[in-house]
Each structure stands twice: as C-alpha cells, then as structure tokens.
Amino acid sequence: MVTKFMTESAPNTKMSARDVKVFYGEKQAINGVSIDIDMDNVVAFIGPSGCGKSTFLRTLNRMNDTIASARVEGDITLDGENIYSSKMDVVQLRARVGMVFQKPNPFPKSIYDNVAYGPRIHGLAPNKAELDQIVENSLVRAGLWNEVKDRLTESGTALSGGQQQRLCIARAIAVDPEVILMDEPCSALDPIATAKIEELIHELRGRYAIVIVTHNMQQAARVSQKTAFFHLGNMVEYGDTSDIFTNPREERTRDYITGRYG
Amino acid sequence: MSPTSSPAPAGHPVAHKTDWMGAAMQKRIASRYASERRFKFMGLAAVTLSSLFLAFLLFVMVGNGAKGFITTEATLTVDMPAATGSISADQLTGPRLSATISSIDVRRIYDDAVEAQYGENGTRYFASTAWTALRSQLIANPDLLMGKADFWLPTSSDVDRAAKDRSTPEAEADYARLRQAGEVRQTFNWNFLTGSDGTDPARVGIWGALKGSLITIAVTLLLAFPVGVLAAVYLEEYATKNRLTDLIEVSINNLAAVPSIIFGLLGLAVFLQFFAMPRSAAIVGGLTLALMTMPVIVIASRNAIKAVPPSIREAAMGVGASPIQVVFHHVLPLAIPGIMTGTIIGMARALGETAPLLMIGMRAFTTTPPDSLTDPATVLPVQIFLWSDEVNRGFVEKTSAAIIVLLVFLLTMNAVAVYLRNRFETRW
After folding, report:
1. Are residues B173 and B299 in the same domain?
2. pLDDT of B205-218, one tens digit each?
3. ipTM score above 0.90
4. With an 8 Å Cβ cutoff, are B329 and A121 in contact?
C-alpha cells in the first residue's frame, strides 16, 4: 500500500493527515504527506536532519501557527474533525494533542505547579484534593512520583535532565490528552534517562496515541510499532516498524537505515 | 605509531608542525598577556576615576548641605499672661483652643517681647517669620500660655550664617553679642524637613517640593508603567510584523532619545492649551513625565519579553494555554525583572527632570505643600534650580541640602525597586 494515495482510514484511527503541505513563506517544507495515527501503535518519524519530520509533527497540534510565515495545506483530522477548520478551538486542540519537546522545558515553578498548570487553566479539577490526585496520578504515570513525592514544592528546573523530561511528560498527560507528540524527547538525555523515557512510552501506549520524532533509529525500532521515513519533505515510506527496518520497500529508506546517508 | 612517523594522508598537504616553544610564539603569548594587563589597568583606572568623582560629589554636597540641616535659634522670654490678659484653663481645652489662639495677636506680643529683651531694633536678630514659629510652639503646647516662658526662635539668615561661617560685619557682631549672653544655640532644622518654600532662607523647607515630587512621580508611574508594559506586550506578542509595526518601533526608539524639554513643550500644548488643565499642577507634571518615560519602559519591556526563552512559550501553548495565559502566566513573570530595571531607570530620570516641568509652570512659588493633584506644586529638582538662582546667600546651603534630600530620595527609590526586582527574579 502506498500511503500517499491512501484515502480510507482504519476504524481505530485517531488522527489522519491527507496530502498535507507546509510552506515557510515561498519555501515548501512538506510535499503532500498522508498518514493515519491510531491508538494502538506508537508511530515513529525518522529521517535525516531537515527532512521535515518535526515540521510535520508540529502541524498535528497547530504549533506551526506561532510561526508567522508558516502555511499549511491539506486536511488533518482528529476523530474525523478537521483541526484547521475555523470551528476548531486551537487552545482546546493543544490540550487534546499534547506535546513533549526536544529540550526539557519545565516552567520555572514548583514541580507541583508544573503538573497542575494544565488542569488549572482548563478547570479540570474542582477542588484541591482532586488537583492533588491528578498531579499524583500524572507523576506516577510518568514514572517520576517516587523520585519527587517528597519535594513537590521544589523548582522543576532543579531536577536532572531526564527527570525534567519526565516532568514534561507528566505535565502533558495531566490534561488527559488523546494524542501525545514527542519531538526528539531523548536527544538531550543520557542513555539511562533515555531508557526510562522509552520504558515510559511503552507504558503509555494504548492509553494515548503517541507519535515520536527521533534521530535514533535504534530508538525508533525499540519504541514504535509503526515507522514513517521522511526525506526532503516527503514521506518516503510508512509501515510496520519491523518491516521498515528489516525489509524496506524503498531504496532511500534502505540507504538511510543502513547508514548510507543522514 | 607516533604521529611523526605516519605518512601524511594522500591528497592532504603535509601538515605544518606548530612550534609552540619557538621565539615567535613566545613573543605572541607575551604580547597577548601585555594587552590583557593594559586592558585591566584601563578598566581599573576608569572605575577609580568615577569613584573619585562620586566621592568628590558626595563630599562637597554633604560638606555644603549638612549646614542646611542645622538652624540657629535665639531665646526670647515672653510673659504670656501679662501680654494676653488672663486666659482661663478651660479656654485651652478641646475645640475652644483654636479660637483662643487665633484671638491672640501673636505678632504684636512677639514684637513687644523682642523690643523689651533686645531693644528697639531687636527684630533684626530674628527671622522675619519668627513670630509664626512662636505661634506654632503655642499651638503645640498651649500650657505655655499660662505662664512666663523662654522660646527658642529662628534667627535671621544673616545671624545664622554668622554662626555657621561668615556674614556681614553687623551680623557677626550681633551673633557675638548673643553668644556672650548665652542667648543662642544651634539645633537640627526640623523646619527644613517639614516646611515649604519661602522668602527667608532661614525658614524655608523642602517638604513642599518633596511632596510635589512624590505626587508627580506617582502619577508618572501609575500611567507609564501599565501603558508601557501593555504596549510592549502587544507589540511583542500580538502585533504582526509589518511596515506599520516597524514604523512604530522606530518612532518609539526615537521618542526615547527626544530631549526632555520638548516633552515639556508637548505637555504645554496638549495638557494646558488643549485640555485646559491647571498650570503648575502635579497631575500635568506627572502626565508630561509619563510621556517622556513611556518609551524607555516600552523598549526595556520589549527586550525583557524577547529574552524569555521560546521554549517556555511553547511549553505553555503545548498544554493548551491561550495567548493571554501564556503572556500573563509565563512571559511576564519571567520578564518582570528586566521590565523593572527599565522602569527604575526611567523613573530615576523622571525624578531628576527639571526642564519639561519648567515649561508647564511647575516652577511655582508654593509656600504650602500640594494637597491634591491639581494644587500648584513644585518638585525637588525645580526647587533646587529655583534656590540656586536666589540672590540671598542663605540659599546656598539650602540648595545643597535640597540636593542631599533629592539624592537620598532617589537612592531610596532605587533600593526599593532593586529589592522588589530581586524578589521577583526567578531562579533557574
């Protein structure tokens, strides 16, 4: 199946993109990408630097809106609803499609306030007890609770890099999103912290649709069930991770995976 | 395999071996250290020079101004019951007190007492308004009306200067006479801190101008800070970048560099002529200074907002914060220290500004402190300017003393602002 011409979506599809093009001013960064993201599989985007995988990821929760010159064409739907339609509330969209960034970026506030921020602004907890519960659950799910439960009032920026990134994941899941986008979440972390994040991704799978951009092909192989290979703004190949890594259909994919370029 | 024995890779030129120990390299290293020492020396010299200037300024100001805080007083014995007739004790209680005091001709009693004690020309020893000091003392302590008492009253400016330094020969003789009789003393000049402008340097005070400055600066801060910060937030976070916003940016930068007297003319034209606001009023001064300060605050705030890492904005947007929540929950708290630095600089400049206030008539001769935004008022720097222009030699030390008050006011304000800024500073 050639994904570019895919029109029908599988029944448990969470997000789907059809012929998405992104322009930065005159320059086209993404040339018509179509992809389905479902709840059961972690999707990895791989590809050389500058291939557009992060750009595409950021169209999925409209983070590109913040760049004045960026323009998106094509359809992206969340549960069948077009996220670029005028009816879509972008603030709510970003709560439903959470994001974890390349560099851990906790707020310079306490650990508690970092996690509680999302629920507070969306009014998810009617009282302090429930907010406490949300914070605890999120930190437990992010695998950080045992390390920070005695120092919730300390600044989030005082944690180690790996802990900060897990705090950011806790912050993202505290608003109970449906999709979590991760933009190279481990590129600033050491191998042990990376292993913890990868473990966490395994545990979060199924509860959230997860898309992860990574430079590290081993990581893509470890954490994802589906992989999309991007090159020069095109999505070259999209399929089961095991197929992509053992038996890619496209020569460019094979060249990249075997380290010919990238 | 040592590097020297390995052959150069094909296609590369033979690597030139750097002679780290050679004479040429040693010379380069030496000259590098020399330039570093030169730079350190110049920096140290600059710091020393500016410290010396500052020390000299403080030394001269305190040396000259300290005397302004000291006043010379001479004693005057007044037999109150004899002069006023009998006043009963119940006339001095509660609401009847002020009526009783105003029924007494203090001026006449004072003149009579001076003539009795110091002879026909005795009033020359005292400040021309010394009788008001007598009245204030009576109001403060009505029991003095019941008997004979000694009052310490301010001497004339000439005698005051004779006590402190040099004066006219007559005044010096007068002072020597008073001293011999033990009828003179020097005390702290509370009147200088509580009084207002006047014609007699021995009796002028700084409170009127200080209060005028306080009101004016409050108007400036209340207007320039919120408007400036909101303008900066809008320009940084909301406005699309186009020719119009470029033009606005250039205009703001130019406004910050416009000489202050031009803002005075603007204030004169807009507030006094067009809006017909009262002359010499603190509100007009505050508005004019706000116009002058706002560009400084806008520029500093924009820079502070720009310096907030984009990752924080993304993080907040990533959990679904609306643009206004991003600004007020994350960007502004992180930018506040920088915004406050700009505001401190702007306020300090506004506090020391004279020229624009002269244009809107704030050089008023006001003998009472302003009580409202529209009362005629003057401010510290203008007061200093006015006193420095006075012919009477007694104003010299008052000018220096007023400068000390202005500096103390300024340093206090800055200290408070720096303290607040440090409290708001986020530790990463």
Report:
1. no
2. 899 999 999 999 99
3. no
4. yes
